[in-house]
């Protein structure tokens, strides 16, 4: 896939904004990717090509940008989409997983019964930085007996070593920020 011409188009469609949301951060802005119909379609197509026929029954999208990429992938591969949300955003009974942030902690929640024991899941988000949210998503899904097949992100910030936190869990990334 390294020589796939679509990757260059996807990479060039992602805008980098310096010092957002605070000084020293080079923010990877996917809103420009979403405005580029070809790059957005290529992004979805690359994920679908990878996961089609892999017997994945759940695409779990991490709030909020995993909600953009997850549903079209889920529909294309014949899987259900399960939103993984911030606390108090889901109306029904939930299970939650706490995870560490740079300063403090946060929680991720999922509806009870959304995922069944034995289901195969793909976790999707726009970006992996420190890996905290992906790890929380994996734990949440595994607690209900799902098997996380892989994590998938459009962008990786390799200098933050989030991939290392995933242990043996495979990570598929389209664009690396290095």
TrEMBL record:
Its main location: cytoplasm. Residues 43-164 form the Phosphoribosyltransferase domain. It comes from the Eukaryota. GO terms for molecular function: adenine phosphoribosyltransferase activity. Keywords: Cytoplasm, Glycosyltransferase, Purine salvage, Transferase. It is found in: Cytoplasm. This is adenine phosphoribosyltransferase. The lineage of its organism: Eukaryota, Viridiplantae, Streptophyta, Embryophyta, Tracheophyta.
């Amino acid at each position: 896939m390294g020589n796939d011409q679509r990757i260059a188009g996807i990479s060039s469609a992602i805008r980098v904004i310096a010092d957002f949301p605070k000084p020293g951060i080079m923010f990877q802005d996917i809103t420009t990717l979403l405005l580029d119909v070809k790059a957005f379609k290529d992004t979805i197509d690359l994920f679908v090509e990878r996961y089609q026929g892999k017997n994945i029954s759940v695409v779990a999208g991490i709030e909020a940008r995993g909600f953009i990429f997850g549903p079209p992938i889920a529909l294309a591969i014949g899987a259900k989409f399960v939103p993984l949300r911030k606390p108090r955003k889901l109306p029904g009974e939930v299970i939650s997983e706490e995870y560490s942030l740079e300063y403090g902690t946060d929680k991720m929640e999922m509806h009870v019964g959304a995922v069944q024991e034995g289901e195969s899941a793909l976790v999707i988000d726009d970006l992996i930085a420190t890996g905290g949210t992906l790890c929380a998503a994996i734990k949440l899904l595994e607690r209900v007996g799902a098997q996380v097949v892989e994590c998938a992100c459009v962008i990786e910030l390799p200098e933050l070593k989030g991939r290392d936190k995933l242990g043996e869990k495979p990570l598929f990334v389209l664009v690396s920020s290095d």
